[in-house]
Amino acid sequence: MVIIHAGCMLAGVLALAAGVTVAMTMRGKRWWLRLHRRFGSAGVLCMLLGSAAAILMVSLQTGQHFAVPHAWLGLAAVLSAVCTYLIGIAQVKKRAAWMRPLHRWAGRVTLALLVLNVLSGLSLVGIL
Q1: What is d(CA 110, CA 73) in angstroms, rounded to the nearest whole number?
Q2: How many CB atoms lie within 10 A of CB 96?
Q3: Are 37 and 18 in contact (CB under 8 A)?
Q4: Model confidence at 1, in pLDDT bands (50, 70, 90)?
Q5: How does DSSP assign 97-112, residue by residue?
Q6: Separation CA 83–CA 75 (nearest Å)
Q7: Sign of the CA dihedral 120, 125, 127, 128?
Q8: CB neighbour list of residue 50: distance below 8 Å, 6 or more residues apart
Q9: Are 1 and 60 in contact (CB under 8 A)?
Q10: Helical H runs in 62-94?
Q11: Most buried residue, 11, 29, 115, 128, by CB count within 10 Å?
Q12: In this prediction, what percent of the chain has a pLDDT beyond 70?
């Protein structure tokens, strides 16, 4: 179950990072938004699957959810990713330019939380 959790979360982080990269470097292309959305959707989906795997893993082992900082940081990172995704959808659907900076800053915060959570997870399993 650890492998499923780690694999899904890694895929999610990489997809979200790819989405950010597309938004930052390919805005001049006609298709950049479509690719940005796909990476964002895939990233959030992978992270939700990884979170479900973590919940199941803890339930089967100790049953003590949120007993370590990695779990709390992970919850914040996943919630931040979902909120960023929803803000991005709302921004496009409502054509609300004022939401663009909010979406960008939420994305930056999400990536920072994800990096911190990856490091705390690696520390938790003894790799760092």
Answers
A1: 11
A2: 13
A3: no
A4: confident
A5: TTHHHHHHHHHHHHHH
A6: 12
A7: positive
A8: 4, 5, 6, 7, 8, 9, 11, 12
A9: yes
A10: 69-94
A11: 11
A12: 100
